[in-house]
Amino acid sequence: MEEKPIDVARLGTIRCEIAPEPRTTLEGDQRRDREGNPLWVTGLAVRRLEGRRVDTIDVTTSGQPQGLTEGSEVRVTNLWARDWALEGRTGTSYRADAIQPLTGSGSGSAPAPAPAAAGSRGKSAG
């Protein structure tokens, strides 16, 4: 299925809702990307710019995001969505190159995210 880039600037406020946890297989082993890096999943609350609606999404990253605390505002770099279907079930999975704490929250002083290297988004091995 097709991967779709997400323009995070249009999402509004993004907060860490569930701290990073290892992404595991049904057997309990930590999943890894094609390069062998461990995969982590972080629950993010996204409040849309317009309205009061808040959505929670699980975002997978290669490597453990550092410095995140539940409830804190975060910056997400290179967010992608992918629709999936398996055995009659459907959904959307999300991947990002990085999730970092947003410093200087509300002041606009946070540094711009570094551009991602081409092909840096690893694929799940399973």
Detailed description of the structure:
A hairpin with a 2-residue loop joins strand 6 and strand 7. The chain is built from no helices and 8 strands. With 126 residues, it is mostly beta strands. The two termini are 15 Å apart. A 6-stranded mixed β-sheet has the order 1-6-7-4-3-2, with no helix packed on it. A two-stranded antiparallel ribbon has the order 5-8. It has a single domain, classed as Nucleic acid-binding proteins (OB fold (Dihydrolipoamide Acetyltransferase, E2P), Beta Barrel).
Q: What is the string of helix and strand elements?
A: EEEEEEEE
C-alpha end-to-end distance: 15 Å
β content, as a range?
Answer: 35-45%
CATH topology: OB fold (Dihydrolipoamide Acetyltransferase, E2P)
Helix content class: under 10%
Largest sheet: 6 strands, mixed
| Tally of distinct domains | 1
Q: What multimeric state do the chains show?
A: single chain
Per CATH, the superfamily is Nucleic acid-binding proteins
Total DSSP E strands: 8
Low-confidence stretches: 105-126
Features:
8 strands; OB fold (Dihydrolipoamide Acetyltransferase, E2P); six-stranded mixed beta sheet; mainly beta; disordered C terminus; two-stranded antiparallel sheet; single chain
Set out the fold topology.
Elements: E1 3-5, E2 13-22, E3 39-47, E4 54-62, E5 74-77, E6 80-86, E7 89-95, E8 98-101
Parallel strand pairs: 4-7
Antiparallel strand pairs: 1-6, 2-3, 3-4, 5-8, 6-7
Short description:
This protein is globular.
